[in-house]
Amino acid sequence: MNDTCSVGFEYIVEKVHEESLQLDSALVRSMQTVSGMPGEVLPYQIRSEWSVTCLILFCFLVFSHIVKNGKKYIIQHIRSLFQRKDRSSLFDEVQGTDNGYTMVFPLLTCICYGLFFYYYSVESFPALVYVTPHEALIGGYILLSIFYMLFKWGSYNFVNWVFFEKEQSKAWIQTYFDLLSAQCFLLLPIILFIIYFRPDVIISNILIAFTLISAKILLFYRGFRNFFNQSYGFLHFILYFCALEMVPLLLLAKGILYMNQIVILNF
């Protein structure tokens, strides 16, 4: 009888111990992280940036407001790009409303170029996404575009002050800002297409190059009409398109590349 009870007690103890081990094993397994199939990291998308969305919305609203309320200004300045006027001012009829539109359109153009510089830099230097705040980069590219515009405006004023009369200088500066304004009509839909549809970088570069080359061709045409009919006009023409067009554009491209490298190395 005692042997039977001893065997039965040992059997119960053994089963309790097995159950305890199973419970401990299940508890350990529940605490361990189960490693499944590794997830795929999504690529960085510019359209997910809140700052980019705010800038695009701002540009679209301002652009829509100007197009709605400034149709007369837009039509007259587009016509002036292809007409030759010998009056003291090219745009006497809309002189009262010129100042606001003349500054807002070029500002929108600089914002669009700044967004494209950011897109190009992120695609060419992916490390920029991880080394510095994106808002600072976007702001830097926009400020660089504005500085480039102001630098050319100052260069034009200085060269024209040396070679030409006040009215001719005024006509050329007005043509320059008109072309900046005209670029906005092409750049805004192109930037929307680039950011939200993410085409190949080559296609994006072709679209921006088409806009820039078209503006240079119109500037070439206006320069020919304004200055080539004079004895020293040809020399002035070469000065404009070598010293004041091509060289600053190359310096801008080099400056963007150097800025990206400095940011990556130092931050």
TrEMBL record:
<keyword id="KW-0812">Transmembrane</keyword>
<protein>
    <submittedName>
        <fullName>DUF4271 domain-containing protein</fullName>
    </submittedName>
</protein>
<feature type="transmembrane region" description="Helical">
    <location>
        <begin position="202"/>
        <end position="221"/>
    </location>
</feature>
<keyword id="KW-1133">Transmembrane helix</keyword>
<dbReference type="Pfam" id="PF14093">
    <property type="entry name" value="DUF4271"/>
</dbReference>
<dbReference type="InterPro" id="IPR025367">
    <property type="entry name" value="DUF4271"/>
</dbReference>
<feature type="transmembrane region" description="Helical">
    <location>
        <begin position="140"/>
        <end position="164"/>
    </location>
</feature>
<feature type="transmembrane region" description="Helical">
    <location>
        <begin position="176"/>
        <end position="196"/>
    </location>
</feature>
<feature type="transmembrane region" description="Helical">
    <location>
        <begin position="100"/>
        <end position="120"/>
    </location>
</feature>
<keyword id="KW-0472">Membrane</keyword>
<feature type="transmembrane region" description="Helical">
    <location>
        <begin position="50"/>
        <end position="67"/>
    </location>
</feature>
<feature type="transmembrane region" description="Helical">
    <location>
        <begin position="233"/>
        <end position="257"/>
    </location>
</feature>
